Request: fold
Amino acid sequence: MSEVKVPFYGHVRQYQNLKAELDSAIENVLMSGVYTLGPVGKRFEGELAQYMGMKYALGLNSGTDALWLAFLALGIGKGDEVITTSNTFWATAESIWLVGATPVFVDCCPKTRNIDTTKIEEKITPRTKAIVPVHLYGQCADMKAVSAIAKKHNLLVVEDCAQAIGAAGDGFKIGEYSDAVGLSFITAKNLGTFGDSGAMVTNREDIVETVTKLRNHGSNKRSYHSVGWNSRLDEIHAAILSVKLKHIDEFNDARRARAKDYDEFLAGSGIKLPHALPGYRHVYHLYVIETPDRDGLQEFLKERGIIALTNYPVAIHQQEGFPFGAGDPNPVLPETELNAANCLSLPIYPELTREECKYVADNVLEWAKNR
Reply:
């Protein structure tokens, strides 16, 4: 087996590039003696809200909690149904189950792999309370279509934006058509810290008031509590994110440049490449190709020192841990299952070079030619 020539993740390279700035920010927090719910976190929340063009942002301990606490604040709970997709990370559905509601899965679009908005209305029932589109791989779902359906049926909308900070649609921005947006800042994300964290962003003051208490043991005043949880963004993580937020557009531009390289190098390969919609700003959290012999290609690349991973090779409704007592145990989702069976994520991150992209693509082409 060859030694690793192209790793899948680039966060160590990113740390090396920003080391002085990041180390200084971390040291400032350590010397301040304030490590939770302090001024650095408050500053980052303001910066994040401003960046996204929204009124409020609340730092939390994960993207999962961002969705879960938003659902609680919106009154989604037992007996409710929430429409979403199954070709996403487990936490999208998990956060729905956590509030006692039932996820109802809609198939994905054959081209973009985002939610197929033409199939949403057929899944709406009197119990439907909300729609949760996922901006998969870094490209926005069709939020204009989602919003139109939601307004027609008086439904809430919560965007799962764990993979798409800095993305935009054709004539719309993230959060413009929703009640709340959930973000994840786990290490590998486009905006990532050195561990777990997330945020909820919204224009609704009532949601902010509720989630502010829920994230801090039901308290907005020291020693006075109601039911809540511990879901706070630590000051060190906030400091790291504040530094990186200044660079997020250049990070995303670099990802887009590498995706363009892959598109160029892999043209004519016979392998399904990502489909970027005209007018959309795709930020390529992942560069996902599809081929029926996904496992064979992955092993071939590994032998050449290229680490490619799968996101998400087992759809949520196919998981052994899927709670079959809640919702349709056998949803008909042919495109979702095809996506799961065929998907392979090639390395992509701001620090990846064009030469490394070429090396990866050349090996993909060699495999495709000889298979």
User: Anything to note?
Assistant: The longest helix spans residues 248-266. The chain has twelve helices and nine strands.
